[in-house]
Amino acid sequence: MGENWNDYVIATYRLGGGGDWTKKAETIALGMTVGSWPGLSAARQESLQRHAGRVVTVDAGLIRIAYPLANLTPDLPSLLTATFGKLSMDGKIRLVDLTLPPTFAAAFPGPKLGVEAVRERLGVHDRPLLMSIFKSCVGLTLAELTEGFFQQALGGVDLIKDDEIFFNDTDAPFERRLEACLQAAERARRETGQIVLYAINLTGPVHRLPEKARRAVQLGANALLINVLPYGFDLLHRLAEDSEITVPLVAHPALAGALYPSDDYGIAAPLLLGTLMRLAGADLVLFPSPYGGMALELSEALDLAERLRDKGGLPHRRSFPVPSAGIHPGLVPHMMDDFSLDVVVNAGGGIHGHPGGAAAGGRAFRAAIAASVACIPLEEAAMGSSDLRAALDQWGSGKARIPKEFSA
Amino acid sequence: MGENWNDYVIATYRLGGGGDWTKKAETIALGMTVGSWPGLSAARQESLQRHAGRVVTVDAGLIRIAYPLANLTPDLPSLLTATFGKLSMDGKIRLVDLTLPPTFAAAFPGPKLGVEAVRERLGVHDRPLLMSIFKSCVGLTLAELTEGFFQQALGGVDLIKDDEIFFNDTDAPFERRLEACLQAAERARRETGQIVLYAINLTGPVHRLPEKARRAVQLGANALLINVLPYGFDLLHRLAEDSEITVPLVAHPALAGALYPSDDYGIAAPLLLGTLMRLAGADLVLFPSPYGGMALELSEALDLAERLRDKGGLPHRRSFPVPSAGIHPGLVPHMMDDFSLDVVVNAGGGIHGHPGGAAAGGRAFRAAIAASVACIPLEEAAMGSSDLRAALDQWGSGKARIPKEFSA
Question: In terms of pTM, does the model score above 0.90?
Answer without folding.
Answer: yes
